[in-house]
Amino acid sequence: MNATSALHQLGQSLWLDNITRTLLRSGTLSHYIQHLSVTGLTSNPTIFEHAIGAGDNYDASIRVLADAGLAEEDLFFELALEDLTEAAHLFRPAFETSHGVDGWVSLEVSPLLADNAAHTIQAANRLHAKADKPNLFIKIPGTPQGIEAIEEVIFDGVPVNVTLLFSREHVLAAADAYMRGLERRLAAGLDLKVASVLSLFVSRWDVAVKQEVDPPFHNRLGIAIAMRTYKAHCDLLASERWQRLAAAGARAQRLLWASTGTKDPAAPDTLYVQALAAPGTIITLPEKTLLAFADHGKVERPMPADGCYAEAVIEEFRREGVDDDALAARLQREGVDVFATSWHALLTRIREKCKSPQVRERP
């Protein structure tokens, strides 16, 4: 059994954190599904910026869509849905076999809406209806306005991947919004099978503090934050409030580990994957990290549900001057800004391609 299969056997889902047309149409994604236990896929504005900007794989579609009168955001979402529809089809067997627990792909609303709940709600419902795929999540950032939108979108029956979560408190706020949406559906006599996942970003913690702490502290904070969050999530699923919803037919909102590629060249390239092995969770992996873990990763012991030494490690960082609450807020805002920058670059790239003689003339 290879390492990715061992993680799958442990009860953790492996999702690829990437999408490109080459990945889809070369058979590479199918290979990952068949041989590396990959059962889902995530995307974000940065991933699509790189995919569309690299080479000419999207030029023919851009030409057709531009000729049909589409531009900018509308054109991008059509491109993204072309890719994600193909991916959703490849993951449909996993979706059906798991009865909707696994086999998902994700499409993010515009990051420019992160501080506008009303527009986020409208965009999420519109994209969900347009995609018309049972195994496609709409990604909404866990900003204060995003949290407000999530309750409404869940009530509307739209599956949500809550992105850009950086702390236990972020995760619990998003989980509360999910449960409020479900409780309103229950009161209205609606089906409670509306799926959601909570995406906690891990490695960015360690990048953020690397210059502020001595080497013995490097690459420890992100994992401690994850362990603390996993305990809180397990406690939430055992709570009376959640158990009432589960008894009425609700499915558990799963915890997803994001930002799992090792950024420190001095650290093992499988550092986060091995540390974040936890039953009932999802881990998203960049291709490089997926292939590294399949080649030489090890599944040693699952993450403890009691938080283990997490609080002690976080307290050590506080003594070093790290304010984890303030840093979580900063990381979330920086995450929104990074995606917004990618979004603007993505739309600029599409505009350039629409005007390019090479794109216009290519048969």
Distance between the termini: 47 Å
Mean of residue pLDDT values: 95
Q: How many helix segments? A: 17
C-alpha Rg (nearest Å): 20 Å
- Poorly predicted runs of 5 or more residues: none
| Biggest beta sheet summary | 8 strands, parallel
Strand content: 5-15%
The shape, in one word, is: globular
Helix content: 55-70%
Tell me the structural class.
alpha/beta
SSE pattern? HEHHEHHHEHEHEHEHHHEHEHHHH
Count of β-strands: 8
Side-by-side strand order of the widest sheet = 2-1-8-7-6-5-4-3
Description:
The chain is built from 17 helices and 8 strands. It is α/β, with parallel strands linked by helices and 363 residues long. An 8-stranded parallel β-sheet has the order 2-1-8-7-6-5-4-3. β3, α7 and β4 form a beta-alpha-beta unit. α6 crosses α16 and α7 crosses α8. The chain is globular.
Care to give the gist of this entry?
With 363 residues, the protein is α/β, with parallel strands linked by helices.
Key features?
17 helices, 363 residues, 8 strands, alpha/beta, eight-stranded parallel β-sheet, single chain
SSE arrangement:
Blueprint: H1 3-10, E1 13-16, H2 21-25, H3 28-35, E2 38-41, H4 45-53, H5 59-67, H6 72-97, E3 105-108, H7 117-131, E4 136-141, H8 144-155, E5 160-165, H9 168-187, E6 196-201, H10 203-209, H11 221-237, H12 240-247, E7 254-258, H13 271-275, E8 282-285, H14 287-296, H15 310-319, H16 324-355, H17 357-361
Parallel strand pairs: 1-2, 1-8, 3-4, 4-5, 5-6, 6-7, 7-8
